[in-house]
Design brief:
Number of helices: 4
GO molecular function: ATP binding; ubiquitin conjugating enzyme activity
Organism: Aristolochia fimbriata
Oligomer: single chain
Protein name: E2 ubiquitin-conjugating enzyme
Number of strands: 4
Pfam family, one: UQ_con
InterPro entries: Ub_conjugating_enzyme, UBC, UBQ-conjugating_AS, UBQ-conjugating_enzyme/RWD
Structural class: alpha+beta
Order of helices and strands: HEEEEHHH
Strand order of the largest sheet: 1-2-3-4
């Protein structure tokens, strides 16, 4: 139980810090006030990218042993991106368990470390939207389209951006 208390204290602190010092490009709050381990995050598509002006909602779920293990992040808004699984789960290095990559793609230094915060995670997601990594894609179709049919990729993304603005 001590671990869980530590995790919830840390999450309460991070939530308070974000409320005091909001970060450009996203907002965060709890899905339900009684559960500090489930956050609702809205990422605003970064300027001068294909996602510019979009509002993308995601759920960030923290494990009981946070910050020793990373949270998972899943977009609940429609998303078309090489590093987002078709079910919305975000696939970026810092959300991967700490230590060496069994597949040898990532350095241990690129993976999860307890120093990461909600802010550093969301900033990594914003950076992912700005520059997709199609080397080890989570969404094979989106990665193929990004590489081979960029115009179709752009059309799909702009449709998703428009749809996200209508939902606001």
């Amino acid at each position: 139980m001590a671990g869980q208390t530590q995790a919830s204290l840390l999450l309460h602190k991070q939530l308070k810090d974000l409320a005091k010092n909001p970060v450009d490009g996203f907002s965060a709050g709890l899905v339900d006030d009684s559960n500090i381990f489930e956050w609702s995050v809205t990422v605003i598509g970064p300027p001068e990218t294909l996602y510019d002006g979009g509002y993308f909602n995601a759920i960030m779920s923290f494990p009981p042993n946070y910050p020793n293990s990373p949270p998972s992040v899943r977009f609940t808004s429609e998303m078309w991106h090489p590093n987002v699984y078709p079910d919305g789960r975000v696939c970026i290095s810092i959300l991967h368990a700490p230590g060496d990559d069994p597949n040898g793609y990532e350095l241990a230094s690129e993976r999860w470390m307890p120093v990461h915060t909600v802010e550093s995670i969301v900033l990594s997601i914003i950076s992912m939207l700005s520059s997709p990594n199609d080397e080890s894609p989570a969404n094979i179709e989106a990665a193929k389209e990004w590489r081979e049919r960029r115009d179709e990729f752009k059309k799909k993304v702009s449709r998703i951006v428009r749809k996200s603005q209508e939902m606001m």
